[in-house]
Each structure stands twice: as C-alpha cells, then as structure tokens.
Specification:
The protein has about 190 residues and is mainly alpha-helical. Helices cover about 65% and strands about 0% of the residues. Helix 5 crosses helix 7 and helix 6 packs antiparallel against helix 7. The longest helix is centred in the C-terminal third of the chain and has 19 residues, at about 120-140. The chain is elongated.
Length: about 190
C-alpha cells in the first residue's frame, strides 16, 4: 500500500496530493511576477494581462498597487529606460518614442518627463548618424530619390520634417551634391 501512497510503481496520480486552487490574488501575483521576470512592464500592460486572464479588477488593482509600492512597477523608470534604449538602439525621435510609450499605457506627464532627457541637439546628432549610414546605399540614385529616401527614413523614425530636410541637405552638401533646393511644394508628401 505504501507504493500507492507514493504514487505507485507506475507513477500514477493516485497517491499525489492535488494543490489547492489558487486564489485570484495568488494568480494575479504569479502572473505579474512571471511577466516582470522577462522585462519591465508598465502598470497598464500588467493590468491588461490580468484582465485577459479573468482576474477581477479590484484584485488586479490591489496587487498592482502593492507592486508599485514595493517598486516592482515603476512607469517613470520604465519610460526613462525606454527612451534611452530606443533612441540609442533604433534612432527613434521624440515623437515616435512618445507614441510608443502612450501605447504602453504610460501617463502623458511621465512621457514628457522621460522625453526631457533627450534634447534637440542629441536628437539632431542621431538623425545625422542615421543619414550618414543610409547615404552610402543611396549613391547612384537620382538626387530627388535620395532626398525622399533619406528624409522618409527620418520621418518614419519620428523626426520633424524641418530637421529631416536640414540634416539631409547638410549630408548631401558634405558629399558634394547640390542640395540647395530641398523644398517640395506642400512638404515631402510623407
């Protein structure tokens, strides 16, 4: 009979004790910890994950508030790290970074605070680096096509049109290309 208590020789379930079902609070904590283990998340991302898994809102809010109190959730720190990482790694400008943070549920005030670490000089420097890298691959193309490609690349990364055109003009001039007339009626059409 002892073998049956240990699960038997066949490893069956007869002798195993079933774990008691988890309370919604325990489920919410486990879900949050699992998600936070991989990477930082915003409060809204965690709230959305808990909602998808059927955790009652009041339980979710209680667990999330507790995690904020102990520093496991910090939207301001998340936003600051996101801006630093995505600007340095992907070359994204303030406009694109703000949009990404908003979609992750970061409050507008925290988004603005995080974007303050990025000044316009730094943003323009990054735009110049992006254009310099892309410039090589556009050699041999007609001038207008080069301008559209380079300025379009910057626009997709969230750079303002004026800055994009100024950076492209300087890069083309440095390369010896005539870049006097970069204005397009009605803008770039991007």
């Amino acid at each position: 009979m002892r073998e049956q208590e240990r699960g038997g020789a066949s490893g069956g379930r007869e002798g195993r004790q079933e774990l008691p079902p988890q309370s919604p609070e325990e489920q919410a904590r486990a879900i949050c910890l699992r998600l936070l283990t991989g990477m930082p998340r915003t409060r809204r991302q965690l709230a959305d994950a808990l909602e998808k898994r059927g955790i009652p809102e009041e339980v979710s809010q209680e667990v999330l508030s507790r995690y904020e109190e102990v520093g496991l959730i910090d939207d301001a720190a998340f936003a600051g790290a996101w801006v630093e990482s995505r600007h340095r790694g992907r070359g994204l400008a303030r406009r694109a970074l703000a949009e990404e943070l908003r979609t992750k549920g970061v409050h507008t005030t925290l988004v603005q605070e995080a974007l303050e670490q990025l000044d316009s000089e730094q943003e323009e420097h990054t735009a110049r680096e992006l254009v310099e890298r892309k410039l090589r691959s556009t050699r041999g193309l007609e001038r207008d096509k080069r301008i559209r490609r380079l300025a379009g690349m910057l626009a997709r990364k969230g750079y303002p049109e004026g800055m994009a055109l100024r950076v492209v003009r300087r890069a083309l001039e440095a390369e010896g290309e005539d870049a006097d007339d970069l204005g397009y009626p009605g803008g770039l059409g991007l």
